[in-house]
Protein 1
Amino acid sequence: MLTALHHPENEAMNDQDRDAAEAIFGELIYSYSRADAIRDGVLVDVSERAKRAGIKHPTACTAGVWALIECLPEN
């Protein structure tokens, strides 16, 4: 499962961080966010289920992994 440590609710990238990243990697030409991936069905938000397992961070898994998880009982 993927855990979003730098989720927008937790902290936004500041200008200094953005400038440093651009200096290393160059200008950003495309962005695909976690929200985009969830909306497109590439990722499935399993945060509520993860909370029951003691995971405190927003959590998602790929649609393929979710298809396997759906087959398992919740207990």
Protein 2
Amino acid sequence: MERLRAILRAAVSVVRRVARYLAGLEWTEKRQDICKFCNPVNIRKISYQDEHTIAFENARLGGKIHWLLIPRTHVRDVEALTGEHVQLRKESFLFYV
């Protein structure tokens, strides 16, 4: 009986984490009228750029170096990336390494 309770507690914990994650995705569906990354004025200290991507220093440094790598075309968020963005992901990996 104790083993069953432990399994149920673990299952409830997983369901709660999934629910919190899904609730956090709610903002991604809201329309953004202004994208700060689409405005070149907001991009400072460009580290790398090519025809598809641009890398720049984040305004809020998370360490000594904190770059953001974004596509040149607007993408709502990382969850909106599609198969068409595979090359971007490959480039970001190579840039990271």
